[in-house]
Each structure stands twice: as C-alpha cells, then as structure tokens.
Amino acid sequence: MGILNQMRSVIQWESPQQYQLFYKFTDRGDELKNASKLILQEGQGCVFTYEGKIEGVFDEAGIYDLKTDNKPFITTIKKLMNAFESEHKTGIWFYRKADMLNIRWGTRIPITYNDPVYAFPVHLRGYGNYSLKITEPKNFFINVLAGQSNYYVDELQEIFLSRITQPISNYLANAKFSYAEIDSNIENIARETQERTVQIFEELGFQLLDFRIEGTSFDKDTNERIDEISNMQAEVKAANIAGVDYAELQKLKAMRDMAKNEGMAGTSMGMFAGMNMGNAMQANASNEKKEPEVNDIRSKLKDLKSLFEDELISEEEFLAKKKELLDSM
Known about the structure:
The chain has about 325 residues and is an alpha+beta fold. The protein contains ten helices and twelve strands.
C-alpha cells in the first residue's frame, strides 16, 4: 500500500459484469484519503464499511465525499515503521440496483406430492425463469454476501431453489391437481409460489419481481405407472362396450394370442375360445331387456363389428351374435 494508495481520490465501478450483483473495490488497496470522491452511476449503489462496520449505504447516482481519519502525509509519517500501513481500513462494495431479468432456474431434485386421482406419489420437475432486484442492500450484505469480494446471480440459485421447493410442494398437495392437470395450471402454480415466498426473499434483502414456470415433466417411473393405468382403463371400457366382463376379455385375449402362436394346437384353442366367447355373450344377452330399443341394438352391432375387425371374435361368433341381435328387434 503506502503513500500512493492513501492519495486515492476517486472511486467508481467502471466495468460491471453481466449478472454481477456485488463487487468489492480492491484495485488499489483499502486505505482511503480523507474526503475521497465516490462516483455512482445510474443503476448502482454502494455499501461503505469503515473499520469493519457498515457506515453508510449510498443508493442514488451522483458524487459522494468519503470522510476518514486517513490524512495522507500525517498517516504516512506515523506509520513509517509499519510499511505505510494504516489501521483505518475501509471497504467499498458496489451493488447492482437495476432489475436482473430472465434468470434461468430448474429443479435439481423432483418435487414429490400425492396425485389425488391416481392415489400414489408422483415426482415432478420444473424449469423457467425469474427476475429480482436488491431492495435492502444492508440485509443482503449481512445475510447473503458475508464479505465476499464478488457475488453473481448464479450463486443465488441454491438459496432460491431451496426456498421455492417447499411452497410448490405444499400448494400442489392442497390444490389437488392430478397428473393431467399440471400443464393447464402452470400460471396458477407460479403465481402462488411467488406470493408464498415474497416475505422470505425480502428478509434476505431482495425482491422477487416475477417467477415463471415454462415447462414441467414427470419422472420415468411416474409416466410408466400412469400409462399402465390408462391402458387398463381403456381395456375395461372396451369390455363394457363388448358386453363382457373385463376378466373374461383378458382370458379371451390370452387364448387368442396362444392360438396365433401354437399352430394346429392353437386352432383347437381358438375354437375353445370361440365357444367361451359365445357362451359369455349368450349369458350376457339373457340378462338384457327383452325388447331393446332400435338405437341400442344399432350401437351394439357397431361395437360387435369393431370386435370382429380387431380379431377379438371369430367370423362365426360375429355372425351368430349379429343374428341374435337382429332377431331381438
């Protein structure tokens, strides 16, 4: 340090970097001349420490006089035996006042909640962007910066994600959105998350200006379980349309598959399956109304044709059931 450092008279943040929130002025040491000039540009602020304590926060653009006990020539003479060092140490941290926009975020671990429709835990990931600004630089300096020389937006990610995960989980648990409803409620989830974390971020010294969820995804296990349930529901619906029990339909499908894979033996199995299909349909028909309406019969004929085209019943079974339905008219 020495006499040249103590003669410094103008301090400013000359080249702020993108996404830089705090910057400690250390280019030429930390001993300031009494009444040095601090220059703040638009969108900049400054935290000034003296002998380890915050003495002032400057948040308006302009020129400021900094008063210390360092009077260059007197201090230099008194400290000659101490390599021109002075105990009157200062610290100047510039900070960005302007809004920081479109900062990217993404969950590192899935958010887990119980799906109200499927009644099992699902694992959701999300990604998007947010914007912030420092509103209480003193709080930010004490609670987040903790004396670092430089601080960038990406260093906030861990703090940010740890604060939003729980509010999202709580909201999803209470909102009872099912797997299929998440995408249509993204804006609601984002708005609720921002409202539930406002106070948390203000206590740290910055304001969350907006929070956006651009997309979501469920983990592989969740998707596979949902697909399995959906396929089963589709088969149950098909069985109802065909007028047979779901368990019987599963047996018939298994027999059909065996018939296709076992050659001549399969032919006999296919005949046996046809007999079972005929019996199942006849048993079901006996429980129908004796005088069904024409529209109901037309609908059943269409469903019967679909079963025949999907090879779930044989031609003989199709014709027999068709005749039975037409005879009932």
